[in-house]
Amino acid sequence: MKKRDFLKAATASGLMSIVPESVRVGAWAAGSDAPEKKEVKIGFIPLTDCSSVVMAAVMEFDKKYGIKIVPSKEASWAAVRDKLVNGELDAAHVLYGLIYGVQMGVGGPKKDMNILMNLNHNGQAFTLSRKLYDKGVTDGSSLSNLIKKEKGEYTFAQTFPTGTHAMWIYYWLAAHGIHPFNDVKAIVVPPPQMVANMRVGNMDGFCVGEPWNYRAIVDKIGFTANTTQDLWKDHPEKTLGCTAEFTEKYPNTARAMTAAIIDAGRWIDSSISNRQKTAEVVSDKSYVNADKEIITARMLGRYDNGIGKVWDDKDHMKFYNDGYVTFPFLSDGMWFMTQHRRWGLLKEDPDYLAVAKKVNRIDIYKDAAAMTKTPLPKDAMRTARLMDGVVWDGRDAKKYASSFKLKVA
Fold this sequence. Notes:
The chain is α/β, with parallel strands linked by helices. Helices cover 40% and strands 16% of the residues. It has helices spanning 3-8, 21-24, 51-58, 77-86, 96-104, 130-134, 140-149, 164-175, 194-199, 212-218, 228-231, 244-249, 251-269, 272-282, 292-299, 330-342, 352-359, 362-372, 397-402; strands at 39-44, 68-73, 91-95, 113-118, 124-129, 155-158, 185-188, 205-209, 222-227, 238-243, 302-304, 310-312, 384-385, 391-392. Strands 2-1-3-10-4 form a five-stranded mixed β-sheet, sandwiched between helices. Strands 7-6-8-5-9 form a five-stranded mixed β-sheet. A hairpin with a 5-residue loop joins strand 13 and strand 14 (391-392). It starts with a helix and ends in a 7-residue tail after the last helix.
């Protein structure tokens, strides 16, 4: 769905028409249905796309909704998963595919999970080593040619087996005729450790969120072959995730958290100066712990691939984008399950739509959207054409999952 169509949907029709009138006039924001839990601990990994969670706390957007958000810096996605599942964290800035992996029991312990909102679109990248560049590799096609011509062990890192970065790099490699398991080796490395591991030669490439792709360029150890928005413009990325148990026990708190972070995302996207301020805040060692300039560059869409190309990318990381970013589209959740099926993580096809309806809490999101005056789309499904020309629309997820030439049988 095009952005202009999304904006047209901000009317009393479609999804908005089924939101109760009391919600639409902001009854909850006025104080009824107060949060059951006043302080919430939200985990995050040191990545630029944790920004709306951090700024919701720092700028006190949370106070308006009667809660206090306490950001909790975590060491790895596995730690985020474990702390969500055992209740040490109330919610988290978390990989879309991690939530679905736990829901389906293929990414660690099986537990019913919820996605309350999407946190960002775009803003990840595929970084390849300078060693590959010295052998003539500049993109996916030349990488494929090298692997076919020069046999050896090529290693590519992602951040969590069922996560977004894993699915992006598998898709990207496969789009260039490289089987991510048969032709190369896949390993898991936490985001902040990517650059150090590439520096000592542990991998030939990786997919991760910013600022670690640009950090590899500044440190002259890697270059950007593609961004993830090249793979899928306005792709889903991180979510505000929690257990279904938390949502059931604290529905008003879940709604308040969502509203506060929607407001923070809107604030970040509203001006260049706000993005610069955000980069300054999250650069602190308490959060991302990276140079402000490294975060700011790609936060503003100013890209340098490290091998001679410089450009302004209008499809850089977005946190609100007129509300389009934050809506938890059912088709987004379904897509990750199709890729889990494609790569053998899921051994059989689930009821894709039924699972997405259970995980993606559009009901809670709609309430938070009403509180924040955020427009809603007319449809909970959206369509995208990915880098290889294949269209995803969610209408026949089973057929889509089995349609790829490169997959795990």
